[in-house]
Amino acid sequence: MRTRLVILSCVFFLFAIVVQAVETMSFRIGMRSIQFRNLPEQRILISQDCFKSGKLSCLAYSAVSKVSLKRFEGESYGGMNPGSIACSKSASGSVVIGIDSQRNERSFCEFKDGSLIDTGTLNYYARKNDSDR
Residues 55-91: pLDDT tens digits? Predict the structure, then answer.
């Protein structure tokens, strides 16, 4: 009996970790409602449609490894969000605004294949890529 209780406790604990590791969010962009997955360990908020057969495969995810802000240092963008600059100047995307159910706004980078990624994610990876190079 005690062994079963320990096993059930472990299973519940592991399930709770997995559920916390992948959080979904919904944002309205224009007239579309788009589902996103938050991957906190990787600091990525990306559209659900990027997951194909359990793997990330889309232009938004490809941008993570390539995005950079280095060549734009010293240029003035009037206080623009660095993630928005990374989106439009480095990743060849378009900045769009998403609104959640609480009416909070968040900026995303939309790519030609329709995939989206949070501009904060792009900012984080642009700085990371620039420091690694």
Answer: 999 999 999 999 999 888 777 677 788 999 999 999 9
Question: Shortest CA distance to 118 belongs to which of 54, 51, 55, 63?
Answer: 63
Of 43, 46, 42, nearest to 27 by C-alpha is 46
Place of tokens 């062994």: 3
DSSP code of residue 133:
-
The CA dihedral of 78, 79, 82, 87, to the nearest 10 degrees, is: -50
Summarize pLDDT for 36-65 with one digit per residue, the tens: 999 999 999 999 999 999 899 999 999 999
CA pair distance 79, 86, nearest whole angstrom: 13
Task: Read off the DSSP letter of residue 91.
Answer: S
Position 12, amino acid: F
Q: What is the rounded CA–CA span in Å between residue 112 and residue 108?
A: 13
pTM, two decimal places: 0.80
Are β-strands 32-39 and 44-47 bridged in parallel, bridged antiparallel, or unpaired?
A: antiparallel
